[in-house]
Amino acid sequence: MNSTDRVAFYETMLDTFLAKAKDGGYIVLEVVGGADEYVQYRRCGDRILGEVGSRQWADPERPLPASAVDSLALLGFSGGGPERNFARESVPGSKTELAELTERLFRMPRAEPFTRDMVEARLRAKGLHYLRDENGDFQFDIACDGADEPVTIWIAVEGHAANIFRIFGGSRRRPLPATREEALERCNQWNREHRWATAVIEDGEHGWSVFAKTDADLAAHSRVLDLDR
Questions:
Q1: Could you tell me the pTM of the whole model?
Q2: Distance between CA 38 and CA 102 in Å, rounded?
């Protein structure tokens, strides 16, 4: 659905709300799959009050980035914070103007630029003990079901603009196939049957090792790192 179609949809919904809502009546418009991302309007006498979800009503909180807060301020919305939305005391009473405002609110920048600090914050939030190398990348061990030895995970931020997120893992203590050729065949079989992660062989000073890895270009988007998966 493009912007013109969305505004037309908002107009239809808001026309009914403005015409029929009694004092205290409200309408909530939310992002599909994102229950904490919404815009709501409430009739209060002869005024329409507007609110934008702060994304801080439930754990884990996802506060809006500074760029979004600044954009909201330019549109007359203030407040925000834990269990408190951004609010505007009076929004347009015209369905067309209100629909256009709604479109602007939903198109605000909501993503934080991807940085190493974002990675570190998630590691700390999970209570993981980690090391950082001279490049600022991360290494930590995790226990896996059915395994006596931990798996070592590396998280690297690469690329000219530091926007390539790479995560790979392996265990140097686990038994390897007898030959490099056999290991390569097993990697190829895994990669044919699975989309994620990619199995690779890495050659080093002390021989070859098998790792699983995945890369993501986060130049246009930020991601929340879910280390439970």
A1: 0.54
A2: 10
pLDDT at 130: 92
Round to whole Å and give the CA distance between 169 and 182: 20
Tens digit of pLDDT for each residue in 132-155? 988 888 999 888 776 677 888 888
Weakly modelled stretches of the chain, pLDDT under 50: 220-229
Nearest Cα neighbor of 148 from 175, 168, 129, 126 is 175
Query: Residue 136 and residue 154: Cα distance in Å, rounded?
Result: 11
Domains in the chain and their CATH numbers? 3-107 (3.30.1460), 116-217 (3.30.1460.70)
Q: Which two tokens stand for residue 143?
A: 């226990």
H or E stretch including 185? helix 180-193
What's the CA gap between 143 and 159, in Å, rounded? 30
Question: Angle 60-66-69 (CA atoms, 0-180°, nearest 5)?
Answer: 90
68 neighbors 80 (Cβ within 8 angstroms): no
Look at residue 162 in the predicted model and tell me its pLDDT. Answer: 76
